[in-house]
Known about the structure:
This protein is mostly beta strands. The protein has one domain (6-111).
Amino acid sequence: MEGMEVGQVLLFFSFHYHHKSHSCTLINWFVHDNECDPNTGIWTVQLECDWRGKPTVQVIVLKTIACGAHLLPVYGSTRVSNDFSHHDTLDSFNSFFINHFIDHHTDEFIGSL
C-alpha cells in the first residue's frame, strides 16, 4: 500500500504543553497483506494484535492522518443475524476490504497505489 497504514480512531483529544496545543488521536492499528486480494484486486486489512492477542493501540498526532478509509467486511459463509447492529462491525469481522471506490478523491489517492 505504498507506505500507507490503516487505523481505527478510538478517541480524539488535545493537550497543552509549553503554551502550545497538540491535537492527537488514540487508534487501533490494522495490518494489510503483502498483495491485493486476487479475486477483487482490493487491499484487505486485519486488526493488529500484540503477543497477548490484545489490539495494538497508539497515540498519534492528528495531522498525520492523510484521509478517511471506508472498510467493508469480508463476509464468510455464514449469515449475519437479523439483530446485528452496524455499530459492532469492526468488532465482529476478522478482515476488511479497503473500499477505494467510496468517492473520487479516495479512488485517486488509494486506487493509484
